[in-house]
Structure to design on (751 residues):
């Protein structure tokens, strides 16, 4: 057997036009399934999302869409060094976050800003991280989009792929020992799922029975690599069975399906201490990052097919059919969000960089003598050439005027060198 | 107590004192570890706090990082230091950078990684390595290597309680061979502080872990020639005690550093460069490094490969006759 007999269906609830699939259609029957059928999964809650939650999800989706558009533009204008959009994957990320408790831990990859926005990370907080200013919690150390929030139980993002997956297993084990009924969700791409850490994590999670939800965003590509070059089998979901873990595949552009599946997964995780794998089928509508151009590896036609399946549009159609949303609200919200994002960006850009001392803090709980000395050496050096290190000099209290004086003196010296005149009356200093 | 008993005793004390201390790794459960360092601990503290993991080093350390970030105090075992490399990414990119990259929102300070290292036991390529220098190039990590049972207990307790991730490398050749007085009580020895084992006038000998035994033998040989050696056990590789080492060299004017690991890129290079920078005018001979050869660790020609007491003794004489 190669497993080809098994093709995991996609759990769907919402059509693109905003109407629900009838509960008894085959799509509606997609359920949390397990290799071992003896343990039945808990039934999925059938009510669509409650009104306030639905509106909050939708507003969060609109916010991340506006943020993504604005920040990509800012990157193109050279105001920001780097950016990554989550366009097309909003329902997966925000729908799942909405199904969790606020103190459940989220350990994400990098395209999950929606989950953080759902938890209440403010526009200014996003901006401070991206611009690495003095208010960035990460003290300007990491590239843009590597957010983290202790208060919101959102683990700081790191670039190495999949490393957070076994960490989520360990985190969930700690939650199990603490016995407070919390769980961890870890979100990752289908590309990251090829890393060894994915295997290690799921196997350990199953053996040690931890309350962890593994949510894979299968968006078809890992940078330029299509998923058919990522794996030969039926995606990520069936891998769970090899670990004796329950698994479900959902339509990742269908916010109701994602929400319900995550709700059910959370219940299984915290009530029975069993990990679960969710595979959300979606599409990375944007480029991989601001450094990528997808036209080299995929067609406009393919993108257009998926643009028609836009998760935000689908949810909007549903909300309007419920009578919960209107054209006017759409426009007003959009305008307001764009204003908010722009103003917040302007504020963040103007804030000072992190203080020079943050170069060496947090390497250890307290700086070692060697680190303290290295910082002192850098300060000495900046005192000599302040114009060359404007951010460090500013945080040491050099004024703009002093920087200018230093810059001029240095330039004059350079010019003298170019005209082969001896510096300082023939003496080099 | 021998070194294994001292380590077992330290783990027992740490678990009794702090219910969040959790031990795990390959075969550490009922069996108590392939060297028996975790004997009886599962019995005493239960399967939830002392357990076997699947055979996956990257999984063990990834799991440990998450558990530490959650606020627990994991003590993870890697069965042999030779097999730590699958977890290199989780140690170097994750554990060591956790606090810095998050601006101290999150940390894995509770983490301790224990691993047996070193040669001299006919372990061939993959049961003999001393990989400390790979990790010494990693800001954010602490590295500790004890030389006897008393140190093993005191340093391990300090490592477990230190608010930073610590790599604790145990000289497996000495597990049973090294026996000594170990207080029953809970005590700690400081991390980052070298131990001057013996004061001397003529030359400074520096090493760590199992190599200290070898260095002491070499010093005894030199003593017969009337050479008075100062012997320093570095104990912590990262951060290392620059001051104690440099003060010693300022006094003796000569330095021999010895470690089992290969020469090129070994930690002796870091020490030699630093001492040269700080003690330049006081050095009376070139700093000598007596180390393993730049080869993989061989089986049959192990004795020839290793920096034994005769090789160190020769280096001492060459330094004095320079
Ligand atoms: C260990 C590691 N290898 C390579 C990279 C470079 N890299 C960054 S993102 C990426 C693709 C990830 O694809 P996927 O997991 O499918 O997520 P997606 O970008 O589609 O959301 C690669 C290869 C990395 N960050 N880490």
């Amino acid at each position: 057997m190669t497993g080809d007999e098994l093709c995991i269906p996609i759990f769907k609830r919402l059509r693109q036009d905003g109407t629900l699939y009838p509960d008894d259609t085959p799509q509606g029957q997609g359920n949390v399934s397990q290799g071992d059928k003896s343990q039945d999964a808990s039934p999925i809650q059938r009510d669509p999302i409650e009104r306030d939650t639905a509106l909050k999800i939708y507003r969060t989706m609109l916010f991340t869409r506006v943020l993504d558009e604005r920040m990509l533009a800012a990157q193109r204008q050279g105001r920001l060094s780097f950016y990554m959009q989550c366009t097309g994957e909003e329902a997966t990320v925000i729908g799942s976050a909405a199904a969790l408790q606020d103190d459940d831990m989220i350990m994400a990859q990098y395209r999950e800003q929606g989950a953080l926005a759902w938890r209440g990370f403010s526009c200014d907080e996003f901006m401070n991280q991206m611009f690495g200013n003095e208010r960035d919690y990460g003290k300007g150390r990491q590239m843009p989009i590597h957010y983290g929030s202790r208060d919101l139980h959102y683990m700081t993002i790191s670039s190495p792929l999949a490393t957070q997956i076994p960490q989520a297993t360990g985190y969930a084990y700690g939650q199990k020992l603490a016995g407070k009924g919390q769980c961890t969700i870890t979100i990752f791409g289908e590309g990251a799922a090829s890393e060894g850490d994915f295997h290690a994590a799921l196997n350990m999670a199953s053996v040690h029975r931890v309350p962890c939800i593994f949510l894979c965003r299968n968006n078809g590509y890992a940078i330029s690599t299509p998923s058919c070059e990522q794996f030969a089998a039926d995606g990520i979901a069936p891998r769970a069975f090899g670990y004796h873990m329950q698994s479900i595949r959902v339509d990742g552009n269908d916010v109701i399906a994602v929400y319900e599946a995550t709700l059910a997964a959370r219940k299984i995780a915290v009530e029975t201490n069993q990990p679960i794998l969710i595979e959300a089928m979606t599409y990375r509508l944007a480029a991989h990052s601001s450094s990528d151009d997808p036209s080299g590896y995929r067609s406009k036609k393919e993108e257009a097919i998926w643009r028609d399946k836009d998760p935000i549009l689908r949810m909007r159609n549903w909300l309007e059919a419920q009578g919960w949303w209107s054209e006017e609200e759409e426009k007003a919200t959009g305008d307001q969000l764009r204003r908010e994002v722009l103003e917040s960006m302007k504020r963040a850009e103007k804030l000072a960089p992190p203080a020079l001392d943050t170069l060496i803090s947090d390497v250890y709980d307290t700086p070692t003598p060697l680190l303290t000395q290295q910082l002192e050496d850098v300060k000495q050096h900046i005192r000599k050439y302040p114009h060359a290190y404007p951010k460090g000099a500013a945080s040491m209290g050099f004024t703009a005027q002093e920087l200018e004086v230093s810059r001029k003196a240095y330039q004059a010296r350079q010019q003298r060198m170019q005209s082969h005149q001896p510096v300082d009356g023939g003496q080099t200093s | 107590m021998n070194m294994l008993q001292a380590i077992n005793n330290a783990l027992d004390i740490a678990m009794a004192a702090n219910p969040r201390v959790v031990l795990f790794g390959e075969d550490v459960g009922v069996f108590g570890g392939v060297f028996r360092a975790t004997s009886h601990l599962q019995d005493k503290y239960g399967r939830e706090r002392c357990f076997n993991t699947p055979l996956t080093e990257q999984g063990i350390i990834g799991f440990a990082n998450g558990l530490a970030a959650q606020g627990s105090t994991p003590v993870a075992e890697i069965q042999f230091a030779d097999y730590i490399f699958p977890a290199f990414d989780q140690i170097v990119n994750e554990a060591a950078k956790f606090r810095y990259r998050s601006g101290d929102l999150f940390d894995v300070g509770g983490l301790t990684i224990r691993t047996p290292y070193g040669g001299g036991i006919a372990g061939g390529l993959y049961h003999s390595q001393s990989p400390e220098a790979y990790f010494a190039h990693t800001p954010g990590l602490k590295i500790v290597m004890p030389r006897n049972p008393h140190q093993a207990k005191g340093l391990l307790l300090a490592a477990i309680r230190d608010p930073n991730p610590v790599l604790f490398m145990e000289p497996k050749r000495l597990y049973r061979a090294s026996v000594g007085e170990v207080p029953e009580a809970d005590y700690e020895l400081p991390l980052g502080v070298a131990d001057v084992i013996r004061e001397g006038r003529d030359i400074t000998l520096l090493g760590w872990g199992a190599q200290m035994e070898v260095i002491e033998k070499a010093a005894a040989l030199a003593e017969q020639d009337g050479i008075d050696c100062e012997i320093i056990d570095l104990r912590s590789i990262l951060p290392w005690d620059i001051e104690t080492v440099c003060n010693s060299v300022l006094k003796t004017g000569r330095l021999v550093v010895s470690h089992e690991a290969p020469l090129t890129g070994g930690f002796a290079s870091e020490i030699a460069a630093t001492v040269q920078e700080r003690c330049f005018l006081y050095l009376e001979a070139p700093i000598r490094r007596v180390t393993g050869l730049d080869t993989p660790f061989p089986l049959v020609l192990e004795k020839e490969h290793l920096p034994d007491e005769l090789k160190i003794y020769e280096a001492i004489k060459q330094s004095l006759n320079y």
Notes: Residues A 111, 159-161, 189-192, 217, 219, 221-223, 284, 288 surround thiamine diphosphate (CB under 6 Å). The beta strands of chain A are 105-107, 184-189, 212-218, 221-222, 225-226, 246-251, 276-281. The first strand of chain A starts at residue 105 and ends at 107.
